[in-house]
Structure formats: structure tokens, C-alpha cells
Design brief:
The structure is a homodimer. Chain A has nine helices and 15 strands. By secondary structure, chain A is α/β, with parallel strands linked by helices. Chains A and B meet through helix 7 and strand 13 of A and helix 7 and strand 13 of B. Strand 13 of chain A pairs antiparallel with strand 13 of chain B.
Chain lengths: ~325, ~325
């Protein structure tokens, strides 16, 4: 415990695709907590498409700049506390950045109960599961018998969205890249159908899979897939906008989907953007309901755990290319 | 009363701009009502951007085809009734089409009380006023002190949206084409500011007029102006999508606004498409409130009344080019 290895964002990617050379390894001293702070040992770092969005400028979080320790959320354990609210051994979720050790003010730490396996705290009980839960139920508002479509369906959020929609009695179609992911959705996670966006025209494939139209679309990607879903929406349909990963890794925002706002009018759609923290006042009952589904086997948790701090840049680059199935994270400690 | 002059849609404009040659004058016999029907004398035909949208295919209404009497709503008077619910002299609103006489089933007629001047029944108490009222209050949900922006602000709907927003205590900015319209908005209708979209960059002009951002955007136009408003929206803003006139008169839908869905997520926007008939269960109290505002002088009614059946094609073409101020209609009888 003499050195703190860190991954620094050496250079902003700007309009380029994110690449390993945008990062570098750094070694710093392990920091010492001041009054009201805690020293954290980082166990698992969460990989999220939002990591890339933060490099584009301020969003709901301030932008990351060149030379900063790369930002990211992690599950961490309190090793030393100088705040009465925390004691060694407590588990917390925090924006620690990509490093082995971090000192943060206690008030910036979200204390979480120890549930085994700990990785579940970053997947189904973490931001991914919470995002799926609130986005689908609060913004999508699916009713039994309706048709729900989710993009990035084999990803951390999408794989949970589809399963919750099934629990709610909906017909569920996932959009994912490649036959392997599509097979997984239908054969292991109980989706009714899957559309491989790499295999051809998504609009036509969705129309074939959902001949009665789409009532709820949970969007994780934006772009052409958003457009394909939009043109398949039913009157009074709902679109939950969770992220636009297709626009994150590259230059200025591309042209938006055709049919906006024309089809939103004629179909009387409701399009709602959200971020999971908007719903934190209702977090505890949500986690309890998710845990009930997991414990009863109704909700299967898929995780993709990589090893070692130095694997973080590649893990993010691969996530943006869609290589993961389920929640991707890196075990650091 | 021996002939019924009609304007027929001679040819669908397809991807072209609507032009006089797409219409022709026709003469037919005055129709005779059957059981359950009424013969209507058409008084005023309403001109709406939606007239053009109907030529592009089915929307919330079936498409218009070449050879059909041009579709359109009108204020009409019952001349002969073969249904117990109607008697001669009753006023109705109906989809009569562009002609002097029409026979329609009584159940397709919306009976309306006689309020003078009759033109108000097509403007502030008609679809325009109802659309402004429900779209702003139900979809935009403005709160006192918020900033409301409306496009096509000098038009039939926009001119009422802005005035209702002022009644509700908001700061109101109208977007319109040309200095004359902008002057009217500020000097006669009480808007706080106006942006001339023909005079330069709308995004920058809006930013200057609304330095604290936009909370509610009432969209009548889509396209670049939608995009300019989107980039000025505040967190948790609402966009009421009423129409997309910029996309009506031309070929296939153009690329959508940049920032969709990315900014919808990061700003947690709610985007709601609507059509006035969605709110008809609440029509009577809405009309009563509108009438109260008109009678007390809080809401000024602007109308643009042209004369004669044969002026209808030019009236629609001009409306699509934005030449009207306030509600455009044609006096037929």
C-alpha cells in the first residue's frame, strides 16, 4: 500500500474513436483522508457508455479533461474513515475514477448493503439494474399484452429491461448485434424475438417481429435504430431515452432520426429522457423488487468481469464496440 | 342552389411544392340528404398546415387521393336535416371538404353554439384555439416564471399559445418570419420578445432572448427551428409537438434535428406529440376559459379572412409559405 496506480486520460479523443493511446498508466502516492473523508480500496470499476460521453463535454456531470484520472463509478470498500457515518469494511458506490485507491468526502459516497456476489451490486442492484427498472416502468409504462422493444438488448441495461418487461406480461423484442447475442436473448433470457442489427434492415426486421407495432421502445443507442423503432411505433406509444451510445464515440452529433417531430405528432408519442438519479427517492422499494425477482429466478443476471486495472481502457473501447454481454466491470483489487 | 362548386385535388403534389395546378374547379349537383344525414351550406373553410400533410399519406386521418374533393374542415349551417339531432339553422363544424354544399351523417357533425362573430368559431374557439390551449397547458405544463418559446408564433395556433403563456405568468418568446410579424407579437400581442427566423441564426437569437434557457417549447414547425430550440432547452424542459409544417411541403422526411435523442437524455426532456381531439373530453371547460379571456380582453384574436371558394388553393399555398397572420380562413357562402 505504498503506491496508487491510476489510469489517466492522457488526451481527449475529440472527434476520433477512443483508442488505447488516449490513456496512460500513472503512479501516485496513496492519499490520506482528511476530516469528513474516507480512504477507499477500489474493488470493481463499472464500465459504462457514459464514460465516453463525459469526454465530449459537460453533461449531467462535468466534463473530463486531459490529464485527469479517468472518471468512473466503482464499488469500493472503506479502509479508513474520518467521518462518523462510515467504518472500515463498509461498502460504497462512488465516482472514484480509474485507480486503486481514492479519498472522497463521506457525503459523496453511497453506502450500500453487502450482497453476495459483490458483482451484483454493480449490475442488477447497481446503476444498470436501477436504470432498467425506472426507465422501463416510469418512462415506458408498459401494460400487459403490449409490445416492448429494447436496443443494446444484450447489454447491462437492455438485458434487464427485456426481462422486466416479460415479468410485466409484455411481448419483448431485443435489438442486438450478432447472432450469438440474439440467440442468448431468446434462448436464455426469455425474449420473444431478437433482431440482429448487423444482419440487415432493422425497420423491416422489427416490422416482421412486431406486426402489430411497438408500444414501448427503450432506447439505448439513438441513431438509425431509434429511427427504425420510431417508424414502427403505435399510436400513443412511449419512448424511454436512456442513452445515445451511437453518438458518443465520434465527432459532432450526427443528423437526428427522420420522422422527428412529424411522427411524434401523428402518433402522439411520448418521448422521455431520464437519468437514474432522477428516481433516487424511490430507490429502496425498487431494489427490493429487483432482489425478489433475482432470488426467485425470474430475472437472470449476466455479468462480464475483466481483471486488472490495466485492462480498463480496452474494456471501455470494447464496450463501445458492443463486445460485452451483460454488465461489464473490471476487478481491480 | 342548383350547382355545387367544388375544388378537386387534380393531382397529388408528391415531392413537389404545392401549386395552383394541383387543383381544379368542379361543378356537381347539390347532394340530397338521406336518412340520418344533413345538407350543409358551407360558410367558412378553415385553412391548416395539416391540409398539406394529408396529401402525404395516412396520418390520423386517411390520405387524400387525386380526384377527391379537397379535404378540409369548415363552419357550416344546416339547411335540411333528416336526423332528429339537427334542425335548419344549426351551426356545425365538419370535415366538409372544399365545396359550397355537403351532405354528411349527423354523427360526423360537431354542433357548436352560435357566437358572433362567426369567424371566432374557426379561430379562438375552433381547432386553432383548442390546439393552443390543450397543447400548451397539457403537454407544455408551463409554470409562472418559466420561459416559453413558440414557433410559427404569428400563426393561428402560435398567436394564442403565446398569449395564454403570458396569462399564466411566463416569459414568452415567439419565433416568426419577418420583422412585421415580430413587431406584431411584441407590440400587439404582448410577447416579451420575438425572433425573426429569416434574419439569422435562430439558436443564437434564442440564446440571446432567453439567456436563462427555455423551459417549454411549443413546436409548430419541426426542422432547424426545432433543433435550435432543443439546444436551448433547460433540464426537465417540455416540448409540445403540434405539427411539423417544415416537413409537409416537399419530398420524403428530411433528416431529423441533431441532438435527438442525446440531448433528450442529458436534459431529461419530455417530448409529447398531440392532436387536439385527444382532449375532447375536456372541451367545454376549455372553451369557457378561452371565452372568459377573450371577453375580458386578455386574449386578442387575429384572423385572416379571404373571400370566395376559388381563393382556397392560393390561400393554402400562401399559408404554407407563412404569409398569414392569425387564423386563415375563406368565406365561401
Amino acid at each position: 500500500m505504498t503506491a496508487n496506480r491510476q489510469i489517466v486520460l492522457a488526451e481527449l479523443p475529440g472527434g476520433a474513436r477512443l483508442a488505447p493511446e488516449h490513456f496512460r498508466l500513472n503512479e501516485a502516492a496513496v492519499p490520506t483522508p482528511g476530516e469528513g473523508e474516507a480512504l477507499l480500496k477500489i474493488l470493481y470499476v463499472s464500465l459504462d457508455a457514459a464514460n465516453r460521453a463525459w469526454m465530449q463535454g459537460a453533461t449531467y456531470r462535468s466534463a473530463i479533461n486531459a490529464g485527469d484520472v479517468m472518471a468512473g463509478g466503482a464499488l469500493a470498500e472503506v479502509v479508513e474513515s474520518r467521518d462518523p457515518s462510515l467504518k472500515p469494511g463498509d461498502l460504497v458506490f462512488a465516482d472514484t475514477g480509474w485507480q486503486e485507491w481514492a479519498v472522497l468526502p463521506a457525503k459523496k459516497l453511497q453506502k450500500i448493503p453487502r450482497i453476495e456476489p459483490l458483482t451484483n451490486l454493480l449490475s442488477v442492484y447497481g446503476v444498470a439494474g436501477q436504470t432498467a427498472y425506472f426507465g422501463l416502468l416510469e418512462c415506458g409504462r408498459p401494460k400487459a399484452g403490449e409490445t416492448v422493444v429494447v436496443s443494446a438488448a444484450a447489454g447491462s441495461v437492455g438485458s434487464i429491461v427485456g426481462q422486466i418487461a416479460k415479468i410485466k406480461g409484455c411481448k419483448v423484442i431485443g435489438i442486438a448485434g450478432g447472432q450469438a447475442k440474439c440467440d442468448l436473448l431468446v434462448n436464455e433470457l426469455g425474449f420473444d424475438a431478437a433482431v440482429d442489427y448487423k444482419a440487415g434492415n432493422v425497420f423491416k426486421a422489427l416490422r416482421a417481429a412486431a406486426p402489430d407495432g411497438v408500444d414501448v421502445y427503450f432506447d439505448n443507442v439513438g441513431g438509425d435504430i431509434f429511427e427504425a423503432a420510431l417508424f414502427n411505433m403505435n399510436t400513443f406509444g412511449r419512448i424511454a431515452c436512456c442513452g445515445a451510445v451511437s453518438g458518443y464515440d465520434g465527432s459532432a452529433p450526427p443528423a437526428g432520426p427522420r420522422g422527428v417531430p412529424g411522427l411524434i405528432v401523428t402518433k402522439r408519442l411520448n418521448v422521455q429522457g431520464f437519468i437514474v438519479s432522477d428516481f433516487y427517492d424511490r430507490l429502496q422499494p425498487a431494489l427490493a423488487e429487483l432482489k425478489g425477482w433475482v432470488d426467485s429466478g425470474k430475472l437472470k443476471v449476466r455479468e462480464d468481469v475483466l481483471e486488472g486495472l490495466e485492462s480498463l481502457p480496452g474494456a471501455l473501447i470494447g464496450l463501445l464496440a458492443g463486445e460485452n454481454i451483460g454488465k461489464r466491470m473490471v476487478k481491480v483489487a
